[in-house]
Amino acid sequence: MSTTLPAVSRRTEILAGISTFLATMYIIVVNPAILSQAGLPFSGVLTATVLLSFFCSLMMGLYARNPIVVAPGMGLNAFFTFTAVKGMGIQPEVALGAVFWAGVLFLLLSVLNIRSAIVRAIPQPLRYAVSAGIGLFITLIGFENAKFIVANPATLVSIAHFNDPIVLTFIFGLLLTSILVVRDVPGAIIIGIVLTTVAAWPIGRLWGDASAVNFGQKTLVNFQSIWAAPDFSLLGKLDFMGSLSWSLWPVIFAFAFTDLFDSLSTFVGVAEAGGLQDADGNPHNLNRSLLTDAVSTTLAGLLGTSPGTAYIESAVGIAQGGRTGLTAIVAGCCFLPFLFLSPLLSVIPAIATAPALVLVGAFMMKPITRIAWGQLDDALPAFLALVLIPFSYSITQGLIWGFLSWTVIKVAVGKSREVSLGLWIVDVFCVLALTSGH
């Protein structure tokens, strides 16, 4: 495969960047909502989230030249709050120091090309499975955001009732966006997001549902309702030395290993789905992408937020046609105004981006046709990786069990030569990640 990326128009890249931002902008509010429960100021985390997403997405676009957004990772923020701070009683400033040192560890692994070696050790069937598994995961997130799939104590999950205006609006948006995509309308995904947002307007006005758009009169005329000054109170507030306590090394490793597998699986899965690969079949500009991801975690500790990582929602922009770093640059620049305009985030509700997430899942399923399903020693580990990503609600768990089952099965059937030295090293990381408790 050629190392030259497909030629695409600047307009397509810009639309792709906007689409990616719309799919990821929820993190601007969700990340502070989670980390504020750890005792960090909401406004301070919001500022840190915007700055991290802006700088590191720009770095991904300008330096790594990949259309992938970098922002504080979901799951990692929950581990920060509920395990490190609340569960282990670690002070928030010390936990931020642990994030910083996890980033330093990442930088060392990246500079020494150890992370690149890990990616290259991933067997091809597992790469296909991870791509499709991430697609299913993104689809599940979309259904969940739209309240189309809901919790059920009897069956774990079930379909929502169709008399809910949120669900009906989602179905409208899903069908409309599907038609636009099938008809190959330029900017189909972003058009779908905009029209679904407009369709959600009556829900906010008539039903007062906070998860939909509510274009109240106050929002339109009162400047104070859309303006919020940035809060830099968390900048440099981490505890450098206190976080190096021996008792905190398991926390540092937990951050490092979880972020490691999240980012690796994202790069592999998104590259496989979007054809963003070099001549050897590895993700495009892999070393630079991994270094960018490492910088994001180090910078996160300095700014005052949980570790940064590559975002699977970047697949939305890739599905829109984004193939170069311009997509990430545009998406990163879209974050910056929300240093001051964070209240405007309610204008694009989760229900509007949900159809795009569901359709991206469909786009990412194509690689599974390349798995040799009749060759069970390849197929079973790939299947475990594929299904455990959405079923466990964790990309990391799917990837870990795919690796471990591949190794065990290959050795058991006398094919240990198909387990490379790199994969044996990866297996050690997998066991460490499992025993770290996250």
From TrEMBL:
Keyword vocabulary terms for this entry: Cell membrane, Membrane, Transmembrane, Transmembrane helix, Transport
Record's subcellular location: Cell membrane
A GO molecular function held by the record: purine nucleobase transmembrane transporter activity
Native organism: Spirosoma telluris
Keyword Disulfide bond belongs to the record: no
Pfam families: Xan_ur_permease (PF00860)
Coiled-coil features, chain-numbered ranges: none
Protein name per Swiss-Prot or TrEMBL: NCS2 family permease
Family membership: Belongs to the nucleobase:cation symporter-2 (NCS2) (TC 2.A.40) family. Azg-like subfamily.
TM helices/strands, residue ranges: 12-34, 40-62, 69-88, 94-114, 126-146, 166-182, 189-208, 240-257, 324-341, 347-368, 380-409, 421-437
Topological relation to the membrane, as annotated: Multi-pass membrane protein
Lineage: Bacteria, Pseudomonadati, Bacteroidota, Cytophagia, Cytophagales
InterPro entries per the UniProt record, alphabetical: Azg-like, Azg-like_bact_archaea, NCS2
Gene Ontology annotations for the cellular component aspect, listed alphabetically: plasma membrane
